[in-house]
Amino acid sequence: MAKNITxxxxxxxxxYVDLIREAKLADYAPVxxxxxxxxxxxxxxxxxxxxxxxxxxxxxxxxxxxxxxIPQSYLEKxxxxxxxxxxxxxxxxxxxxxxxxxxSHLRPKGKLEEAYVIRPTSETVIWAMYKxxxxxxxxxPLLINQWANVYRWEMRTRLFLRTAEFLWQEGHTAxxxxxxxxxxxxxxxxxxxxxxxxxxxxxxxxxxxxEGQRFPGAVRTYAIEAMMQDRKALQAGTSHFLGQNFARxxxxxxxxxxxxxxxxxxxxxxxxxxxxxxLIMSHGDDDGMVVPPKLATxxxxxxxxxxxxxxxxxxxxxxxxVVADLRAQNVGVKLDDRENVTPGFKFAEGDLAGYPxxxxxxxxxxxxGQLVAVKRNSRExxxxxxxxxxxxxxxxxxxxxxxxxxxAKNNLDRHSKQINSYEEFKEFIAAxxxxxxVHWAGNSADEKRVQEATKATLRVIPLDAPEEKxxxxxTGRPSNKRVIFAxxx
Length: 489
What we know:
alpha+beta; BirA Bifunctional Protein, domain 2; Translation Initiation Factor IF3; 14 helices
């Protein structure tokens, strides 16, 4: 157990903050509500970017960039959208600062004719541009993604999970038909699900959001929900079918193959640096981070062990060759050959940072023609022959990836329960037991009643939920499938 990290069993919230601080993932910024992402944390975000960007491009998407400042009038064009984001907007009203004689403080100068909103999301400015780019069905589909930052006033900060400024990607696509746009929204939801499970080793449930949880301006919102180690839900990605709402607001039309003019159909979808928080809470332990090999910049930490000068030369000759062989096989390796730091300190530091696998070689290992490999997730220690070490290390990394997913899946399965009465539901939620699968036929007002009474929210209506006749746990009205309620971040 790392001495400066509160154990999870003692205080899960404190553990989360302590781990981020001690592992040097992020820090609080001097700007209220914002964070500084430190190199260790940004490396994880880069791993997320690398994997997702390839998946986006493999499905036909391209990257572009749109302005940070959005004319306020743009936000006002789509009524539900502006209503949903108005209270979260940061607004730029002046073009500069000036010093007034006799006053030591700078004051705003040059009031703008129209205020600009620092983007809370980019639908409006992107659709203003799409109006210029789309004329014919031959211009469709338009499949664009943007990697950017956004800003939403947020006073209840929680590093990575809830900050005013955060990093994300936002896809915005235009289509000739409703069916094509709906298919795109589902495709990207499945991309997120695949990424979460295969790269983050984090099982998720894909589903439809209720009307009360829908993205402002969307016709339908889909999401993936994950369960953290403390059994709370975390929304890990969203994909929205926008219908023709933004196309109508910005008058984006095209001439179809029958020479008829109609509005295009749209989607948007995104994930953010919240995924770094999800990774921490899915796999971290009382010693620090545990990074899945597929997301780690350096899946392997290599540590030489020696005392005398002649020992160093022998050890480093062998270890350097192993490192070179691994890198030749596209396995990232961090070689920690610092001489002023003890091996024990390097081990603890590596555990804190979450390197999936540590390899060690000392003088005796050189003589025996072997190395020692230690798995970060289970602490399992194996002795590997040097001649077969590289393929064994690669297999071990695959094992770690699978074990992390299995452990997280067991947590999800163990703490998910079908519940049939509101009384049982309230007891389950009060005890922080996890995901409640309940029959539901309520409306947004009913959802609010449940949330006020229990602090649980309707997370998703699972897409793979079987048809099952039942009665709504709250209203008693007929229901044909179960939904998920849970406490959430």
